[in-house]
Amino acid sequence: MSWLVTGGAGYIGAHVVRALSAAGLAPVVIDDLSSGHRGFVPGGVPFIVGTILDRGLVEATLREHGVTGVIHVAGYKYAGVSVQRPLHTYAQNVEGTRVMLEAMAAADVANIVFSSSAAVYGTPDVELVTEDLPKRPASPYGESKLIGEWLLRDQATATAGSRHPLRHTSLRYFNVVGSADLDVYDTSPHNLFPLVFEALIEGRTPRINGDDYDTADGTNVRDYVHVGDIAAAHVVAAERLEGGEPVEAAYNLGSRNGLSVREIMDAMARVTGIDFTPEIADRRPGDPDRIVATGELAARDLDWAMRYSLDEMVRTGWEARRAAQG
């Protein structure tokens, strides 16, 4: 009995792999290393280098390792850049998910946890986002994640009367930060935490992309959630699917209390001990003003909780990044 983690050599996926191992669910990794790192995969974990767009490879992996479920983390995750690269985004996120579901059906694998995104909501006009809020994605990335959820829903409907009906859930979250293992850190060239860390390491001044948003301090507001908490929720979702327990079609992994980019910058200076005044740059296309979710359903079913303070999020991420320097 094992679980395939797509994108398991990436920042989030590698944490999921470790959480699965700790829970006694044997992980298997497939990753094309386009943004992941071989060194992020622990020794002893089966690691297949390849793309989820390769139906034959995915099906063979599922069969060879006796996979009973998939945690589908692989994808192109950059909302702002997706505006310039919509076709690439759809190929990776929509076609990749379709191929994964096709391979799962062929190999009689019926459980999947999908790494979705709060970007499916676009720019909501409510204080707190709940799962039933209308979906109005503001970027090709958000659209691709929403289509991914539709694919799961439709395949579940299509297989409802079969020997192996698809069981699924989608986890929606926004900014994942920090580290739960010194060997794994966020290497994204677009995410806020690594951008600030790299600037500080190189002696540059970090910058804020836009200070004219419709928020209290003019910088956009998000759920910032610790990667360790995110990984743990994926594992509980997998366990519920494996055990035949009921799950919702989607869960928000939210903080209920958003943080602004400026608040993040203040914490960065405070925790690292490097004083700076951030530069102000232009907005990134596709970035909404505010997305903050409740996480109540996930707390009920997935043991979801915010177990790290803002300073702890910064500290764990900074320590992992510094450890990578040797």
From TrEMBL:
It comes from Microbacterium deminutum. This is UDP-glucose 4-epimerase. It catalyses: UDP-alpha-D-glucose = UDP-alpha-D-galactose. Belongs to the NAD(P)-dependent epimerase/dehydratase family. Signal peptide: none annotated. Pathway: Carbohydrate metabolism; galactose metabolism. It is an enzyme of class 5 (isomerase). Residues 3-254 form the NAD-dependent epimerase/dehydratase domain. Keywords: Carbohydrate metabolism, Isomerase, NAD. Its EC number is 5.1.3.2. Its cofactor is NAD(+).
